[in-house]
Design a protein that fits this description.
This protein has 266 residues and is mostly helical. It has eleven helices and no strands.
Length: 266
């Protein structure tokens, strides 16, 4: 029960910050809560399941934008230019992320090693990927003046490729996508909104396509999902404001260094 609450809360809080909630859960799970016989595939499946909680939190928070996009699917010509371009962007980026992400996840699952025996190596990999996340965030800078009305097809292609690599634990999905959008000269508010709108179809699709057989609605999983949703809903507004004002690249860099040092203690 305690494990479910802690991991769900971590997902709910850190999903909105570019620090890789997935990497953090991997570290906590492998070093404090892993049970005998659990494999990397089990852990990937569990983390993807926890993302459903923050999916529903984001869906509620971004509902006005989501509603416009859903209406545009059936009345595309009547939608505003920014909504049309955002919808095209999300379709392109989701399709590309889905294809590449499936390949990456299936590659991870083929490793099929025990979490208990491979905790040190997994923590080391997460640390290295956190360094990459930190580097990209520091390179992202403050962005430019581009808004949703300036989205191009190539932006969807680039962000689709970038988002797919968030399947690797330690590469923050929001950190990668926001940094990339900033490097493409979008303003920070547009970058944050586009980043989290991108997360909705990929998380839902990932659980439907890849995870539906592994989802088990027992008391502990429902508790973890509820914690992810509740903490996500309670913190999304304040943490998105914080993410808009602060470059978390330095925080992620410190997190990466501490994670690397932790491998010496395992």
């Amino acid at each position: 029960m305690i494990e479910a609450l802690i991991l769900g809360a971590l997902q709910g809080i850190f999903e909105w910050l570019p620090v890789s909630s997935e990497g953090l859960i991997f570290i906590v799970k492998t070093n404090f809560f892993s049970g005998s016989g659990e494999t990397l595939e089990d852990l990937v499946s569990y983390v993807l399941f926890l993302h459903l909680g923050t999916f529903f939190a984001a869906l509620i928070y971004f509902w006005p934008q989501v509603k416009k996009l859903l209406v545009a699917i059936f009345n595309f010509n009547k939608a505003s230019k920014s909504t049309q371009l955002s919808l095209k962007f999300l379709i392109i980026s989701t399709f590309i992320s889905g294809i590449i992400g499936i390949v990456l996840l299936q590659s991870l699952e083929k490793l099929n090693f025990s979490i208990e025996s491979g905790a040190k190596y997994l923590t080391l990999v997460v640390a290295l990927l956190l360094f990459i996340t930190a580097f990209l965030q520091l390179r992202g800078g403050q962005g430019g003046k581009r808004e949703a009305e300036k989205i191009k097809v190539k932006d969807g292609i680039i962000l689709g490729i970038v988002q797919s690599f968030a399947a690797l634990p330690g590469l923050s999905r929001s950190g990668l996508t926001v940094s990339s959008l900033l490097m493409l000269k979008f303003n920070k508010q547009t970058a944050l909104h586009l980043s989290f709108l991108m997360s909705l179809p990929i998380v839902l699709g990932g659980n439907i396509i890849l995870n539906y057989k592994a989802i088990s609605f027992n008391i502990e999983s429902l508790l973890a999902l509820s914690a992810s949703f509740i903490f996500g809903l309670l913190t999304i507004k304040s943490l998105l404001i914080l993410a808009k004002k602060i470059n978390f690249g330095y925080f992620v860099l410190i997190f990466a260094i501490l994670t690397l040092l932790a491998t010496l203690l395992i």
